[in-house]
Automatic annotation (TrEMBL):
This is Steroid 5-alpha reductase C-terminal domain-containing protein. Signal peptide: none annotated. InterPro entries: Metal_cation-efflux_comp, Phopholipid_MeTrfase. It is a multi-pass membrane protein. The lineage of its organism: Bacteria, Pseudomonadati, Campylobacterota, Epsilonproteobacteria, Campylobacterales. Pfam families: PEMT (PF04191). Keywords: Membrane, Transmembrane, Transmembrane helix. It comes from Sulfurospirillum diekertiae. One of its GO terms (cellular component) is endomembrane system.
């Protein structure tokens, strides 16, 4: 499978898993705790977007031609803050109405985002000599942990 096809497969899986979680949980009223988790994820995502201009941002793990390495804001601590944001938001969805299916789909989403992160990092190492140094200073997805 080509590199771009693999990237598009990962993005497709990501959105399929998110859609399944959202459909599985329907339009019921979430608990305050679930809503808080979801909103924290949204807030973190907005904070992240503030530091990464849209022209630099890519939905696939492929690196844009003129992309620059961002090391400010959330990127100072983790290399993939948008993936972290998605995971926190979807955790809020899962917590709102936990089922075996939702935990299974959430686990598949985690695996998909880790594969996307790994692919993106491999491409960044080819694209930028400073990325290896950046990797040593930051965690992959979860601040201060992983």
């Amino acid at each position: 499978m080509s590199s771009k096809a693999y990237s598009y497969l990962l993005v497709s899986l990501q959105f399929i898993f998110i859609a399944i979680l959202l459909v599985e949980h329907g339009l019921h009223t979430p608990s305050n705790f679930a809503l808080l988790i979801f909103l924290l994820g949204c807030g973190f995502g907005l904070y992240t977007v503030r530091h990464n201009p849209l022209g630099n941002f890519n939905i696939t793990p492929e690196i844009k031609e003129n992309a620059s390495l961002i090391t400010t804001g959330a990127y100072r601590y983790i290399r993939h803050p948008m993936y972290f944001s998605v995971l926190v938001m979807m955790l809020g969805v899962v917590v709102s109405k936990p089922t075996i299916l939702s935990f299974l789909i959430y686990t598949l989403l985690i695996i998909t985002l880790f594969l996307k992160a790994k692919k993106e990092e491999m491409l960044w190492m080819e694209h930028s000599s400073e990325y290896t140094t950046y990797m040593r200073k930051t965690k992959r997805i979860i601040p201060f942990i992983l």
